[in-house]
Design a protein that fits this description.
Order of helices and strands: EEEHEHEEHHEEEEEHHEEEE
Radius of gyration: 18 Å
CATH architecture: 4-Layer Sandwich
Shape: globular
Strand content: 25-35%
CATH superfamily: Ribonuclease Z/Hydroxyacylglutathione hydrolase-like
CATH topology: Metallo-beta-lactamase, Chain A
Number of domains: 1
Helix content: 10-25%
CATH class: Alpha Beta
Number of helices: 6
Length: about 290
C-alpha cells in the first residue's frame, strides 16, 4: 500500500497580515489554518504536528484562535478510523505553540519525535514563552525522562534519519534552528512536510511581494533565523520536492523548483489526498518568475 498524506485541521487564527509575510498590509487582519498531517499506508500511522494547546494562549497577543469540535485531534483522527493510541509516532516540524500543543493528549506509548536542536532551543528561553509555552516544553521534558516516549533527531544537514520506511526527516532550519522537513516517498514523488519555512505560498513563492530577482522568495515576518537562512530553507525544499505542504496554507505542487499548482480547499478536508497531482489546479504563472 502506498504512503498517503491527509491534512489535519486543528483550528484557525486571525492575526495581522504583516505577522506572516514581511511588511504585508500592516493593520489588515487575515485568517490562517493550523495544520498537521496524517501519514498512512506505512508500517504504522504517523502524525506530523498536533496543533495548539488552548485558545487563551493567543488572546494575550490580540489574536483570535477558534477551534470547533470538528477541529479536535480525536475528531480528525476518527475521520480515518483511528484513535490517539493508534499513532505510533508524532513527529514535529518544530515545537512552536501552534505545532506541539496537543502532545500531552497522546499516551506515553506514542513516541513524540523532534530535533534535539529544537528542544534545546525551546528550553533556552531565547524566544521567551511567546512561541514555546511552559506547558508544552515541560511536557517534552517529561517525555524525555520516560522510556521510549521521546525521540530526538540529530540531523545536521549532512544526513537524514528514518522514522518508518518511506518517511525520513532532515534539518531544514530557516524558521527555527531545529526545524525539520518530513520527507515522504509517495507514488508521485517526494512530499515535503515543511512546517513554517513559508506561511503564505502565493505572496512568498508564487508572486513574491518584496523581491524582483528570479527564484527569489519573500521572507516571512516570524522566524528565529536570518533572512538568508530562511531563503535557503525555502529553496532547498523546492529543489527536490513534488509536493510542498506547509503548516498554514493550502498544499502546493512543485516542478523544476517552482510552484506549478495549488490544492485549494484541502485544509478544510481531512480526506483530501494531497499526494495526487491530479487534485492540484495548475497556475497560470509559475513560481518565482523573473521580473
Amino acid at each position: 500500500m502506498a504512503l498517503k498524506i491527509f491534512p489535519m485541521s486543528y483550528g484557525r487564527l486571525t492575526m495581522d497580515a504583516s505577522g506572516l509575510v514581511l511588511f504585508r498590509t500592516p493593520g489588515t487582519k487575515t485568517t490562517i489554518p493550523f495544520l498537521g498531517f496524517l501519514i498512512t499506508g506505512g508500517q504504522e500511522p504517523v502524525l506530523v504536528d498536533t496543533g495548539a494547546r488552548a485558545t487563551q494562549d493567543f488572546a494575550a497577543f490580540g489574536m483570535d484562535f477558534v477551534r470547533t469540535p470538528e477541529m479536535t485531534i480525536d475528531h480528525q483522527l476518527a475521520r480515518h478510523g483511528l484513535r490517539r493510541g493508534d499513532i505510533r509516532y508524532v513527529v514535529h516540524t518544530h515545537a512552536h505553540i501552534d505545532h506541539a500543543g496537543g502532545d500531552d493528549q497522546f499516551p506515553m506509548s506514542t513516541t513524540v519525535a523532534l530535533a534535539r536542536r529544537e528542544l534545546e532551543f525551546a528550553a533556552s528561553g531565547i524566544m521567551g514563552s511567546v512561541m514555546y509555552t511552559a506547558e508544552d516544553t515541560k511536557h517534552l521534558i517529561d517525555r524525555l525522562h520516560t522510556r521510549n516516549a521521546l525521540r530526538l533527531f540529530d540531523v545536521d544537514g549532512t544526513f537524514e534519519e528514518e522514522v518508518i520506511p518511506g518517511v525520513a526527516v532532515r534539518l531544514s532550519g530557516g524558521h527555527t534552528p531545529g526545524s525539520l522537513s518530513i520527507l515522504v516517498e509517495t507514488d508521485e514523488g517526494i512530499a515535503n512536510l515543511a512546517g513554517d519555512i513559508a506561511y503564505h505560498v502565493d505572496d512568498q513563492l508564487v508572486s513574491p511581494l518584496l523581491d524582483h530577482g528570479a527564484h527569489e522568495p519573500t521572507i516571512s515576518a516570524n522566524r528565529a533565523m536570518t533572512s538568508l537562512e530562511e531563503k535557503k530553507a525555502i529553496k532547498r525544499a523546492l529543489s527536490d520536492s513534488r509536493f510542498l505542504l506547509v503548516g498554514h496554507d493550502d498544499p502546493a505542487l512543485v516542478s523544476g523548483g517552482r510552484i506549478v499548482g495549488r490544492y485549494a480547499g484541502a485544509t478544510d478536508n481531512p480526506r483530501a489526498d494531497v499526494t495526487a497531482a491530479a487534485n492540484y489546479a495548475p497556475l497560470r504563472s509559475t513560481s518565482l518568475q523573473a521580473a
